[in-house]
Amino acid sequence: MVTQSVPNTSGGLTVIGGKPFGFLPKEDDIRMFRDTTPPAPDWIIEGLEPGDVGILSAAGATGKSMFCLSLAVVVASGKNLFGKWAVGGNPGDVTYLYAEDGQATMHRRMHALAQITLGGLPDSVVDRLHFYCLRGNPPKFATQGFQRGSVDKNAAALNEIVMLLRSQATPRLLIIDPLVKFHSLDENSNEQMNDFIDLMARLGTETGVGVILVHHETKSGEAGSQNAIRGAGAIVNEARWAVTLRKLSVKEAQAVGIDEDERWKYVFASSPKVNGTGKLPDLILERGPSGVLSLSAKHWLTKNGFRTPPVVGGENGRPGKALQDVITASEVEDEED
Fold first, then answer.
1. In 10 A of CB 110, how many CB atoms?
2. Would you state the pLDDT for residue 27?
3. d(Cα 258, Cα 261) in Å, to the nearest integer?
4. Residues 133-174: pLDDT tens digits?
5. Where are the beta strands (DSSP E) in the chain?
6. Cβ burial, residue 191 (10 Å; 0-12/13-18/19+)
7. How many contiguous H segments (helices) and E segments (strands) does the chain have?
8. H-helix or E-strand spanning residue 158
9. Confidence of residue 126 (pLDDT cuts 50, 70, 90)
């Protein structure tokens, strides 16, 4: 077939054979889509595939970084997270860029995590973990452009990450902790944060990894909901996977028999947004030595697959509310960290 270049008046792109040329990938084979069995989702962790961008958000001092370590270990080992959230069957390399904690803190946390992990952390798992302390000097992957609202990409820093990931045997997950340290954009700008999420998605697509951005929550939103995630709505809207961590409220702690002086040890994990699969089971986690998180014996929620909860006693012998009615996001109190 002979193609012919023709004038184009719709934006300056060369037109060959009647189609714009220069940015479109190969056309999808719809007949093949129709006639063949599609592949099963390649979950890194349930709901997050290679090329996807996820958000892990929480208020300060809630256990975000420790949660990331647990996630990194299970992705590198192929085991389910806390025995409840499914991880893809193929273990792979995990790259963790952290810019808030120092190496001494990471040393204490990883040592403590290894002590409580069943069977320890074998070399085969450790060799898939690639952690980089960037405290005090994190690269800005995107910065404010000269023109108002524009975004400049840091090609040198992005290329270094791409080369790093491609050098690994089985790149699987990139964790960036926290998001705010790796850009200088306006987090309240939907346009700029949309560009940043797109940038991370392209990085993930080109290297075959999922990307999880660790982020903070606003104090004005409902704790544990996607509306509590700080900044522009595009941060969570453009992400394919969002998980939040929060502390238990006073009422929740009372409902599961946790004393007030022990309440700080417990963390509630939920998934307000997971594309392509059902909501992940809610988790009640408990802090151990050095902040290591593990599934608590208090995980009695039923609405996401846990065993039937006890009934919280009422007054004058009347039955109280069932636990699943007590532990709801709407009853979380506005607490200072």
1. 19
2. 93
3. 8
4. 999 999 999 999 888 778 999 999 999 999 999 999 999 999
5. 5-6, 15-16, 19-20, 53-58, 93-98, 129-133, 142-144, 151-153, 171-177, 210-216, 241-247, 266-274, 283-287, 293-295
6. middle
7. 9, 14
8. helix 155-166
9. very high
The string of DSSP codes covering 24-70 is --PPP-HHHHHHSPPPPP--SBTTB-TT-EEEEEE-TTSSHHHHHHH
| pTM, entire model | 0.81
| Cβ neighbour number for residue 161 with a 10 Å cutoff | 20
For helices 190-207 and 155-166, the axis angle rounded to 10 degrees is 30
The answer to whether the CB of 46 falls within 8 A of the CB of 204 is no
Q: If DSSP codes are grouped into helix, strand and coil, which group holds residue 136?
A: coil
Tokens of 267: 């963390």
- Of 146, 158, 240, which is closest to residue 199 (Cα–Cα)? 158
Count how many residues are written for the chain. Answer: 337
- Is 70 exceeded by the pLDDT of residue 46? yes
